[in-house]
Known about the structure:
By secondary structure, the chain is α/β, with parallel strands linked by helices. It has helices at residues 12-23, 43-53, 67-77, 96-107, 167-173, 186-195, 217-221, 227-243, 247-268, 274-282, 285-289, 316-323, 331-340, 368-380, 425-437; strands at 2-8, 30-37, 57-62, 82-85, 91-92, 111-120, 126-127, 163-166, 199-211, 296-301, 304-310, 348-351, 360-364, 384-389, 398-399, 402-405, 417-420, 445-446.
Amino acid sequence: MISIIMPVYNAGKYLKESIPDILNQTYIEFELICVDDGSTDYSREILDYYAQKDKRIKIISQKNKGAGAARNVGLEECLGEYVLFWDSDDRYEPNAIEKALNRAIKTGSDIIVFNADCYETDSGLVFGQQWLMEEMLPDKEVFSYIDIPDQIFLFTPACVWNKLYKRTFLEGIGLKFQETPYMNDVMFEQVSIVRASSISIEKSVLVHYRRGVSGSVSNYENKSRNPHIAFDVIRKTKDCLCKLDVYKDVWKSYANHSLGVIVSQLKMINSKTYPLFEKELASGICDEIGINKLKNVEIEWSGGRQTAEILSSSSFDGILSHIIFLSRYDNSCEIKTFMKYPHLEYNCIFRLNGVNENDRILLYGAGYKGKRIYGLMRMTGKYRFAGFVDSKADGNIQIDGNLIHAPSQISDLYYDYILITVEDYYHMKEIRNYLLSIGVSEKIIIW
């Protein structure tokens, strides 16, 4: 039997999709443990409705403690030979359990990692995102961290919803989820993946990760943007890896992943919380984790995994000042960082994944970010500049002698890729949807 543990918090609008996806699985021998984490909407009513129709559903209620605490409760109650930690707002392929379980039975692995894609709530579009970096995997069906120590925390995100766990393995290592407002599954995922003696891959897309969600587990966990939580998770996970005597083997991978976490936090903060973030950086964590020793850095953001190649003379501050170009956060933070480290951006060379250096890049957005990207392209000589596009273009505005084109002129321009260079995430989505509506292929839109 399979145990599916699902934290539920104010997910009423999504449960009518996620629960039927699970109940209609081709593999039927499972229990669905729904832990209602103090929902204040109609989530409990929906859970009760389905529980009355299907005895495989078990409902547990608790005061609002977060998804980590909810998963821990589910772990204490589950009876399955294998365990899935699925979210209440995602969608699932009809044969998801069957495929993951078949791989587990075939290989006998402690953990099965499977692929996923993204489902956008507003548009209904399903699009690929690199949840499984196959190029980082060893050429063998069953592996462990020993086979890929420098990639073990990079080949898949530090989340649990795209993994099937053997319950006896979890019981043997006695691991629990952290009960933090967000990032509560990071330490669980990373410690378990180095404790596993056998890991296997199911390359099929089994989960459709929902984006653009309000009131779901994902957004609930992200209510608190206190930067210290992310740094605490990084430190505590490192401490745990050190106690297991594996950190010396996996430090590069962990430092890379930690840098990604820090950059993700940077995208979330604003001018009020930036001083807290800056204080954490000043505490010496970049030396503590080993980030400043890195020469090649892998960072994942929307549009795919990008690589920042860092020159040997640069430090984390240089890495950060480079990545800021493509980050989404309060503009005052960006200006403040560049004022503090004005020279460090020149230590970095950026590379857009899958884009050739001779490709022509059209920049959609001629504001602060667009100008910075344009300057970086000129400075490095990487990629060919195809022009600016901006909705405020009036036919006369120029930047460095380059006329800014109106969006209606895109079909007349010659380019290989369009890079959306605006600050606001929702504005980015609007531009992307507009480009799709006028026939621009999603494959050439970078945002």
